[in-house]
Design goal:
Helix content is about 30%, strand content about 10%. The chain has about 210 residues and is α+β, with helices and mostly antiparallel strands. It folds into two domains: about 120 residues, 3-Layer(aba) Sandwich (Rossmann fold), CATH 3.40.50; about 60 residues, no CATH class. The protein has a four-stranded mixed β-sheet, with no helix packed on it.
Length: about 210
């Protein structure tokens, strides 16, 4: 489990209980009741074709395979609806397996949507969403007022004290196969863009 992610979650949702490792969590409906909506998404490391981080093991991988615990908990919790998110750049065979497994969980039709978070936030992230709740429309025109980078960034005078350590910069600028930078620090931290390409979790490794 990622300690930093848990800290962020508990800060924003202090009344929610962290149940720990999802692979070890079991749900007793008599004790805990049923759940209407289950929201989640397993890590993408083994699914993504976007870079060389993955091991190409797909849903059989250690991280991405946590998807099957999502399915298990959906049944244990007696859920009616689900919303599952994952990376858009995965092999079709993996996407098809996810759709098949989710369809087996519900009598309702399963929908798969490709969405970009720039419609809702200041970040450009194309992602696949599976749900058994139909969207009324795929028209995102009313969402043109979604926030831009400048609307959420701290003033520069406050940023200097948060500057990343040299260790973090070296980590993100290291050269990998093909001669490109792994995280391209300058690109990912460009404050002049309307939408951010990504906000990498690698930052905490050098902080």
């Amino acid at each position: 489990m990622c300690k930093q992610s848990i800290q962020v979650y508990e800060k924003h949702f202090p009344s929610h209980t962290n149940l720990g490792d999802v692979a070890k969590v079991s749900w007793n409906q008599k004790k805990h009741g049923t759940v209407d909506l289950l929201v989640g998404g397993s890590p993408c490391q083994n699914l993504t074709t976007a870079n060389n981080l993955g091991d190409n093991n797909g849903l059989q991988g250690k991280q991405s395979g946590l998807f099957y615990h999502y399915c298990r908990l959906f049944r244990e919790m007696g859920c009616k609806f689900f919303l599952l998110e994952n990376v858009s750049r995965m092999k079709k065979e993996s996407s098809d397996v996810i759709t098949e497994k989710l369809q087996a969980l519900t009598p309702l039709k399963v929908y798969k949507y490709l969405m970009n978070s720039e419609h809702f936030s200041c970040q450009r992230r194309r992602r696949l969403y599976w749900t058994n709740i139909p969207l009324r429309s795929n028209n995102y025109e009313p969402l043109k007022m979604a926030p831009k980078m400048e609307s959420i960034l701290l003033p520069m005078k406050d940023c200097y004290q948060l500057e990343l350590s040299n260790k973090a910069k070296l980590y993100m600028n290291r050269v990998v196969k093909g001669g490109r930078h792994k995280w391209q620090f300058g690109f990912h931290s460009d404050m002049k863009r309307n939408k951010s390409a990504t906000v990498t979790a690698a930052w905490h490794k050098g902080k």
